[in-house]
């Protein structure tokens, strides 16, 4: 069995190879370690290896893990190690229900899954009360027949226009998912289409200057995503394996 360190190195190497292949610099590609099948101990190990971006899609596991990691970071600091409190970043990558915003916002650096105007309105309301500006990605449903969540590509411009009126939401870019097939080439047309739409939306007058994140690619297809311009990849099982953790 491979250790977390070996898996982490191997994922980073794969990222570097994919970037090299298309002449991109790895410094512009951020790895988010998706913790849904990870134990606290495995997350701690990644932190000790210097990793700081983590993503969760289930609120229950998210709140537990974030609290446990907070504690760990506090203990490290007491032992005289560098204070990581402000460098650990949590990303929310699951489908976000409106009634969960109140719990997700305080923990989250970036929400990858804004998928409707109604959700945006709720996020705005919660963020305003908290005096917080929350950064979001617009989750776009490129392969429409295969999945349910996400905004239709043709509606992304309209949602951006609405977001421009919401003072506590800062659109940072787009996120998409490809159907998980055996062959990562199946994801290429979807990632390519998403990148085209992303480039188009960057030029939209409502997207703002901070609209520069393209989050796509998971364990089975992140290399293709990088070739298609992703600057965030969300990787779970390649780092932590497939073992199920009971939430
Ligand atoms: C689980 C998950 C991932 C990571 O998937 P792996 O195939 O385990 O790498 C990425 N993005 C989202 C939205 C997920 O739910």
What brief labels describe this structure?
single chain; 247 residues; TIM Barrel; 9 helices; globular; binds pyridoxal-5'-phosphate
Description:
The protein has an 8-stranded parallel beta sheet with strand order 7-6-5-4-3-2-1-8. It has 247 residues and is of the alpha/beta class. The chain is 40% helix and 15% strand. The chain has one domain (2-245): TIM Barrel, CATH 3.20.20. It contains 9 helices and 8 strands. The structure holds pyridoxal-5'-phosphate (PLP).
Output the CATH topology.
TIM Barrel
What percentage of amino acids are in beta strands?
15-25%
| Continuous helix count | 9
CATH homologous superfamily label: Alanine racemase
Give every kind of bound small molecule, once each.
Answer: pyridoxal-5'-phosphate
How many domains?
A: 1
Class from helix and strand fractions: alpha/beta
Estimate percent helicity.
25-40%
Q: How do the strands line up in the largest sheet? A: 7-6-5-4-3-2-1-8
Per CATH, which architecture?
Alpha-Beta Barrel
Poorly predicted spans: none
Categorize the overall geometry. globular
Q: Mean pLDDT across all residues, rounded?
A: 94
> Rounded to an integer, what's the Rg over CA atoms?
18 Å
Q: Name the helix and strand elements from N-terminus to C-terminus, one letter apiece.
A: HEHEHEHEHEHEHEHEH
Q: How is the main sheet built?
A: 8 strands, parallel
Extended strand count: 8
Name of the CATH class: Alpha Beta
Distance between the termini: 24 Å
């Amino acid at each position: 069995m491979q250790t977390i360190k070996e898996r982490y190195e191997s994922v980073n190497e794969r990222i570097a190879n994919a970037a090299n292949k298309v002449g991109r610099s790895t410094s512009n590609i951020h790895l988010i370690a998706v913790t849904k099948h990870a134990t606290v101990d495995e997350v701690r190990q990644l932190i000790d290896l210097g990793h700081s971006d983590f993503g969760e899609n289930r609120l229950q596991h998210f709140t537990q893990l974030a609290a446990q990691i907070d504690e760990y970071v506090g203990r490290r600091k007491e032992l005289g190690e560098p204070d990581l409190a402000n460098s650990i970043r949590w990303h929310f990558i699951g489908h976000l229900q409106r009634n969960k915003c109140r719990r997700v916002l305080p923990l989250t650096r970036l929400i990858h899954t804004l998928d409707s105007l109604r959700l945006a309105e709720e996020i705005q309301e919660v963020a305003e009360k908290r005096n917080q500006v929350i950064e979001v990605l617009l989750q776009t449903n490129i392969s429409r027949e295969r999945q349910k969540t996400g905004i239709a590509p043709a509606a992304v411009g309209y949602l951006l226009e609405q977001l421009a009126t919401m003072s506590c939401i800062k659109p940072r870019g787009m996120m998409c998912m490809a159907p998980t097939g055996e062959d990562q080439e199946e994801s290429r047309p979807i990632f390519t289409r998403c990148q085209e739409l992303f480039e188009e939306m960057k030029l939209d007058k409502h997207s703002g200057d901070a609209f520069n994140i393209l989050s796509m690619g998971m364990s089975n297809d992140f290399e293709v995503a990088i070739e298609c311009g992703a600057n965030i990849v969300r990787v779970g099982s390649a780092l932590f394996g497939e073992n199920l953790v009971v939430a």
